User: What shape does this take?
Amino acid sequence: MGLRHTPLFDVHRAAGARLVEFAGWEMPVQYQGILAEHAMVRERAGIFDVSHMGQVEVRGAGALAALQWVTANDVSRLADGFAQYSLLLTPGGGIVDDVIVYRLAAERYLVCVNASNRDGDLSFMREHMRAADVVDRSDEFALLAVQGPIATEIVGGLADTPLAGVPSFALVEAEIAGHRCIVARTGYTGEDGWEIYCPADAGAAVWAAVVDAGSGRGVGPAGLGARDTLRLEAALPLYGHELDCETSPLEARLGWVVSMDKGDFIARAALLAQKERGVSRKLVGIEVAVGAPPRQGYRLLRDGIATGEVTSGTRSPTLGKGIALGYVEPKSARLGTELAVEVRGREVPARVVPLPFYRRSG
Assistant: This one.
């Protein structure tokens, strides 16, 4: 089977983007370069195609109860037009995926899932949510993310609905380039921004309108390369790196997502047991001031003895130093702990630092 293409694939190819395989999709990794695109998002705004993400609608009288059962967060706290970050969990407390749950109406929710997990998430939800209708709507949407300090000015100038007062993790319906869209104040870069859900056949028109609106302000397309360095600086986890079915929210610093007091749910017993006995590893932030940046799979050492492993690492374009996320034994997780990253047989000094590595001002 060949690689899949988003509704914006021809636009990227015409713009000269460098295309790579990602989770079975042919996607733009960069346009003008990762460092330039990273700086563009931090300083102004960038435009991403994230149409490879999946969208699953959960609807019907049993929708709320079904979502309460399989997700970690408390869906009952959502009002119409609001969203929450959450996790799909296994009965053993592992993470099937990290997701955003949008409440469209009392009996209608839209769940945005990761591209690499689209098929698996859909099967999991249908297996464990039989009291609700679970509908795959992924191919109906093109999804654009506009992220950065002036993202609201760019998107707000195109929308027929005021956006400036819309809070984080809220959504509105708005017309952009003549097409009705769902516009949500969510993102994955550590910056303010918007994700625009529009009809798949309108994706090119909406993309062109956003690019045109940003062109005179130093705002343009950005690829997956910058998206990864941006999310890592913000210490946002990536499925398959920090998260998987063998990892629990308590290990991954996501205990804040788990609502133990909402009633029973699929992983409650397993997570309560783990909380009582304690976790065997913890996700931490690691800084490497000099030398080669840490990479996924590099061993983490303490006093010459292995204590964990890097899950994601890069040289931070904003901070100018090596940063990484990784799992270590609890005794090595304390802030300030001196570690070493094993790089091609050499021990490079590192230490455990607070997260996130980067936090936007304002």
In short: The two ends are 46 Å apart (CA to CA). The chain has eight helices and 19 strands. The first strand starts at residue 18 and ends at 22.
